[in-house]
Fold this protein.
Amino acid sequence: MKFAKVTSVLVALLMVTSSFAGCGSKATESVESTNSAVTSTVATESASVDTAKKITIGITLQDMSNEFITMLDESMKIQFKKYPNVEYIINDAEAKPDKQVSQMDNFISQKVNAIICNPADANALIPAIENAIKAGIPVITLSSDISKNVGQFWSGSENESAGEIEAEFIAKKLNGKGNVAIIRGPIGHFAEIGRFAGYKKVFDKYPDIKVVFDQTANWQREQAMSIMENWLQTGKQIDAVLAQNDGMALGALKAVQDAGKKDKIIVAGVDAIKDALDSVKAGELDATTFQDAIGQANGAVDMAVKAGNGETIVANIIPFELVTKENAETYYARIELPK
């Protein structure tokens, strides 16, 4: 396979097991943030939880305009109800790594007991996460991670696997031959790097599959639709589109449908958000790859609470799964949040 002007970056993350001592600072009863934070004190729901020690957890999410990130946010808020002794602060980085670094710095200054970070950039957040850990604050990276092990613990899914699953589906649908277009997430993002590495690993086995277009749409549906419209206008043959998330896949699909070419172009995505499941079930989007937002979010909350209490934690790795029209119906229950 030919990757024109494309380089592949493989990210290898070594997950280690260790224990954290207490952060050396007792959390105050209310915590304020200058970064559009949402501070919440969770109501008591379980008498089995020890409420003697109050802890505070700082959370920074890369971009809450993204549907998958919204699922992580909502899942965590529900999971926190199990912990009446926990206060949490949620910040939206608005897809700006520098803003997320500032939020991390604020958490360190506030001496929170643990941090959940959903990094917007695999490299830009390394120093901030390292600084938190040096300050004695455990850091759990949620869904996305950084490209260096500095002592953080990850709750997520292996993105190279997602790329492999998606690319293998496309390769089989094309019978090993055809022109494909790739729509990436933000360049340098943890998921973008991993998923592209998965594409390359698969397509290297298929010399008759060629990448004819490759561009980022920054996880955005509208950008992907515009990019796809431009590609279609070139007249160059496109047999399949691999989008690195469902929002972009649905944007590309809309452009393909508007051009009257859905019967000629295969489109696949990643995440299995509800819109994507609806589209796959309807026979429009050809496939998506399920990423367990609820499992990742719940795992991160549990890990952060344990770490904030000085307990030992380990990484939480959840496999990706291929979703097609044949099995789409079974995934609705797995993306439904508890009432």
